[in-house]
Amino acid sequence: YDSGAGYMHRYVLLFIVFLIVRKISSAVTHYTLPEEMKEGTVVANLATDLGLDVTTLTKRKMRLDIIANKKYLDVNKETGELYIVEKIDREHICNTKSSSSCYLRLEITLENPLRIFNIELEVLDMNDNAPHFRRDAIHLDISEATPKGERFSLSNAVDPDVGTNSVKTYYLSESEYFNIEIQTGRDGSKFADLILIKTLDREKKENHNLILTAVDGGTPARSGTVNIFVHVLDTNDNAPTFDKAAYNVKIMENSPIGSLELHHRRLHSGVQRCLLVQSVSSRDQERKAGGETACAKGLQIHRVQHPERDRTVRD
Questions:
Q1: What is the DSSP letter of 165?
Q2: Quick one: which of 257, 287, 289 has its CA closest to 275?
Q3: Mean pLDDT, rounded, for 78-100
Q4: pLDDT: is 292 or 202 the higher one?
Q5: A biological process (GO) annotation for this entry (predicted)?
Q6: I need a surface site. Which of 17, 172, 190, 278 has the fewest CB within 10 A?
């Protein structure tokens, strides 16, 4: 029975101590502070707010502990003021955008008698970051046969800031062929789709250089840009054409091969010119000679043979 009574006595004492400690530290004092404040900036006077005697702070060994973070703040034991030791970067403390709130939790301890004060410091976001794109440039290959209204997804800009200081909208440089439409993701992030508003024509313009600008909602607003390079791919939408409907050509019998050029225009990449080539080695062969047309494409020459029945040769 004595052993059981002693056990119950110790249990009651521990329970009483738990209640006292809980009572001592149950109250939470709340402060708000913008990020990036200068070192030495006074946040609040703890002695006044907590009802402490400033003259006893040193004697009672007052100390401040920051839970799960480095020591960004400290207490002046002579004045009871809570001040900044090192600049606070909200994006470093709260590196996730899942919540718009960011807190530092502090604990103030005094001895003789023991007192514990819980302090919650909310770090407010400042517009100290500009939107930026993950890539330096966006490259798009678009066929000239693409119909109007076609959409192309663009990489979105990112901004470490939250709330109204994050990316708010996008702007596209002036273009008669393209426009953008701003979309909102499930997480509230903003991104833009590139929309073709006028049919492309590679023969008129092969490359389009655009600038996409992301702007946040801070005051003053910050922005970031990315270059968009659109290369128009060719389709077979034009037939070859000649400068004239007919050509009258006179050739000297001793003309060297390749001396006569017949030009034709073709708007596509490919065949650029054709050469009428006549091979002559003797008078007899001259009357029977066929011919060939050599078409140059780049540095290669493609020859098409023409038999005697397809060509008239005169002395």
A1: G
A2: 257
A3: 87
A4: 202
A5: anatomical structure morphogenesis
A6: 17
Burial tier of 85 (Cβ tally within 10 Å: 0-12, 13-18, 19+): middle
pLDDT tens digits, one per residue of 207-245: 999 999 999 999 999 999 999 999 999 988 778 887 788
Amino acid at 124: L
* DSSP code per residue over 258-294: T--EEEEE-SSSS--EEEEE---SSHHHHHH--EEEE
Tokens 């109007």 belong to residue: 148
CB 119 within 8 A of CB 208: no
**Residue entry with tokens 């008129």:** 204
- CA dist 282 to 169, 220, 243, 251, 302, Å? 79, 87, 34, 16, 26
Give residues with Cβ within 8 angstroms of 310, minimum separation 6.
Answer: 290
Which residues does 189 contact at the CB level (< 8 Å), separation at least 6? 156, 166, 167
Predicted TM-score of the model (pTM): 0.65
- Please give the distance of CA 148 from its chain centroid, rounded to a whole number: 26
State the chain's maximal CA–CA distance in angstroms: 143
Structure tokens at 99: 């919540």
